[in-house]
Amino acid sequence: MRDLFSDSVEICPGMVLLRDFADSAALQGELESVLMAAPLRRMQTSRGSYMSVQTSNCGQFGWLSDRQGYRYSDIDPLTGEPWPVMPVIFRQLAETAAELAGFPGFRPDACLINYYQPGTQMGAHQDRDESDCDAPIVSVSLGINARFFVLGSERRGSSIPVNLSDGDVLVFGGPARLFFHGVRKLKFSEHPRFGPVRWNLTFRKAL
DNA sequence: AAGTCCCC
DNA sequence: ACGA
C-alpha cells in the first residue's frame, strides 16, 4: 500500500509504532457519536476491584470484565443493545496500519475504547481473550501523551518504555502479540482539542 | 493479576 | 506475593 509512510519505529520484533499516523480530529467526531449510544463505564475485575480506566466498545463484539471474568459480547450489558457499528474511518485506519506494519488482511470485529484521566493507569496484562491470536492488535492514541511499557511473554523483568502521543498507532502481532504491556499512571497535561484526557482505541479480531 | 497490598 |  503506502510505503510512503516513513515515521515508523520497530519497538521489538512484531511491534511497530506509526507516529502521528491517525487523523485525530476526524476520529474525535466519530468517537463522540459512538459514546452517545454506548456510554463510558468502569469495569469490575473478577476479584471485585475496579479498573481506573473507563471503557466502551464499538463493532460486532465488545470486551467486558465483571465478576465472571473477561470475555467478548455482542450485546452492551449497560443498554441491552448491540454495540454501535464500528465507524468506517476506524476500520480503515486499523486495516491500513496493520498492513503497513506487516500484517495484511486484518479485519477487526471489535474496538475497545479506553478513557484515561490524570491518575488513570493500566497494569501489566496480556490481550488473550481473542480466539484468533494470528491477528494483530492495533492501538490508536488520542489526546494527551502517555507512557506505555512493554514486557515480554512474562510479567516480570525489564520493560521497554514507549511514549505515545496524539495520532500515534501501535501495531503488535506475531512474536509480540501476547506480550505483557500496560500504561503508567497518566500525568496531567492538556491537548488543544481533547483537553486533559487520553483516549485509546484498540482494534481486535475477537472471534 | 486489565488489581491490591505489603515490605525493602 | 497473591490464586487465577
Tell me what you see in this structure:
GO terms for molecular function: broad specificity oxidative DNA demethylase activity; ferrous iron binding; oxidative RNA demethylase activity. It comes from Granulosicoccus antarcticus IMCC3135. One of its GO terms (cellular component) is cytoplasm. Keywords: Dioxygenase, Iron, Metal-binding, Oxidoreductase. This protein has a single domain (about 10-205), classed as Jelly Rolls, CATH 2.60.120. Helix content is about 15%, strand content about 35%. The protein is built from 2 helices and 14 strands; from the N terminus they run ββαββββαββββββββ. It has helices at about 25-35, 90-100; strands at about 10, 15-20, 40-45, 50-60, 60-65, 70-75, 110-115, 120-125, 135-145, 145-150, 160-165, 170, 180-185, 200-205. The chain is globular, with a radius of gyration of 16 Å. The two termini are about 25 Å apart. The mean pLDDT is about 95. It binds 2 DNA strands through β4 and β8.
List the helices and strands and how they pair.
Elements: E1 8-12, E2 15-18, H1 24-37, E3 41-44, E4 50-58, E5 62-66, E6 69-73, H2 88-100, E7 110-116, E8 122-125, E9 137-143, E10 146-150, E11 160-164, E12 169-172, E13 181-183, E14 198-204
Antiparallel strand pairs: 1-2, 2-12, 3-4, 4-7, 5-6, 7-14, 8-13, 9-12, 9-14, 10-11, 10-13
The chain binds two DNA strands through strand 4 and strand 8.
